[in-house]
Amino acid sequence: MSERVAIITGAGSGIGRAVAARLSRQSCSLGLTDIREDQLRLEADELATYADVVTVSGDIGEEATASQLISRVVGRFGRLDALINCAGITVDGDRGGIESVSVEDFDLVQRVNVRGTFLACKASIPHLSASRGAIVNVASVSALKGMASTAYPTSKAAVLGLTRSIAFQYASNGVRCNAILPGPVDTPMLDIANRKGVSLVGRPGVIEGPGTADEVAGLIVFLLSDDARMINGAMLSIDGGLANA
């Protein structure tokens, strides 16, 4: 990945921030977006020692945010080699059975997790086709396991469908698109899951966790690399064995 150009959504914290740190150390140029402008500014300052960084703060569920980000990155660096979709949310109202989830909460989660991923992919594809680049979408093991929440696993299952469609549609252009399915990761989102009373760790057959954002970032960077040239349309779990338990 040395000296390539990558865009990361949800870059202000958690997995997105860890990916940005890893890629910056490989001298990649970065386009970062997050809804939290203050966190983006701090992150850009931290990464400036290693990388040239463009930031756009805004709601990735808005088409204008994705378009502005891609336009600024390509305008600045002249190309785009990788897209990493880390932006995602869950909400406190997404707990218990489906009857307890409000339509508003359900729509909000789909807007960020599904629509945001779709918009970033849609705006990036022409440039990734030109560079024969790669996409990694962050899904979740919850897309494969029955869980107490409703909106979040539904959104992540949709991301898997989107990933496979893009992988099929653009393989002839040299574009690879894969999804990773993290289990519990030590990020702010795990705090929300714990508040919802979701039991994610301590199960038989599961490596003691949670995992770290940097461990997940390592898998993402591998999937973007030339070593992963023949990996396309894959769903790779990084969950300590939770999907198998």
From TrEMBL:
Keyword annotations from UniProtKB, A to Z: Oxidoreductase
Entry-linked CDD domains: SDR_c
PROSITE patterns: ADH_SHORT
One Gene Ontology term of the molecular function aspect: oxidoreductase activity, acting on the CH-OH group of donors, NAD or NADP as acceptor
A Pfam family that the UniProt record links to this protein: adh_short_C2
InterPro entries for the chain: NAD(P)-bd_dom_sf, Sc_DH/Rdtase_CS, SDR_fam
Family: Belongs to the short-chain dehydrogenases/reductases (SDR) family.
UniProt protein name: SDR family oxidoreductase
Native species: Microbacterium rhizomatis
